[in-house]
Amino acid sequence: MTKTELYIVRHGKTMFNTLQRVQGWCDTPLTKAGVEGIQYLALGLKDIDFVEATSSDSGRAIETMRLILGEHPQGAKLPYRIDKRIREWCFGSLEGAYDAEMWGVLPRILDFPSYDEMVDRDTTFREVCEAIYEADTANWAETYEELSTRVLTGFEDIAHRVEKNGGGKALIVSHGMTIAFLLNLVREENNIRMGLENGSVTRLTYEAGNFTCEEIGSEAYIEKGKEISKNLLN
Questions:
Q1: CATH superfamily of 4-90+143-233
Q2: Record's SUPFAM superfamilies (predicted)?
């Protein structure tokens, strides 16, 4: 059986990413720069023999996947699924606010004088999730139990399906906090300070129900795509 690998991409840069606004279940399209970054990524991933593809149901993830598959030699034939379980966190009534507003509110709920002191204390994902849940006046945010179950089962089901079908490499497009949270669930030392850039690739292997982190937030595939693009122009 071939080794099972997940290539998990953070979607391309969007309008709200650029404006530094909270974007969980709300959605904005990729910017021109965001599209360009994913086009480079797509070139960098062209040589990888994927067996299937899955994105979250958010428009920005679907748009990112469309751009990658459009450049891939197997793109038109690759089985492609949409799975809402791997979408971003729901930030409830904080959705659409400036990032600074949300990260100003949460430290106060957790009894810290500032964001920097909150992260310096290695605040856990559970604490952040519970603070979002408490701050959400619309009652849309998920509990920690709901969120962890959704994210872990979503990625586990993808990995298990690939493994059951003989293994291979699966292409996945998801979201920054969701990917960082998954890494925390499978390797507890990963914390909320982890920054994953748009278009970065996090690679996990899966065997007998267990994930292993092989690569976190790699931008090497984008850089490879830039080199390929440069050579095509010369």
A1: Phosphoglycerate mutase-like (3.40.50.1240)
A2: Phosphoglycerate mutase-like (SSF53254)
For residue 170, the model assigns a pLDDT of 98
pLDDT digits (tens, 9 = 90+) for 205-233: 999 899 999 999 999 999 999 999 988 87
- Using DSSP's 3-state secondary structure scheme, residue 173 falls into strand
Nearest to 89 by CA among 137, 19, 136: 136
Given a contact cutoff of 8 angstroms between Cβ atoms, the answer to whether 45 and 58 are in contact is no
pLDDT for 122-132, tens place per residue? 789 999 999 99
Please report, for residues 35, 77, 125, 200, the alpha-carbon distance to residue 218 in angstroms, rounded to integers and kept in the order given: 18, 26, 22, 5
pTM of the model: 0.96
Distance in Å from the first CA to the final CA of the chain: 41
User: Tens of pLDDT along 24-71?
Assistant: 999 999 999 999 999 999 999 999 999 999 999 999 999 999 999 999
- Domain locations in the chain? 4-90+143-233
Taking the CA atoms of 120, 14, 169 and 42 in sequence, report the sign of the dihedral they define. negative
Strand partners, 6: 170, 204
Give dist(CA 66, CA 72) in Å, integer: 10
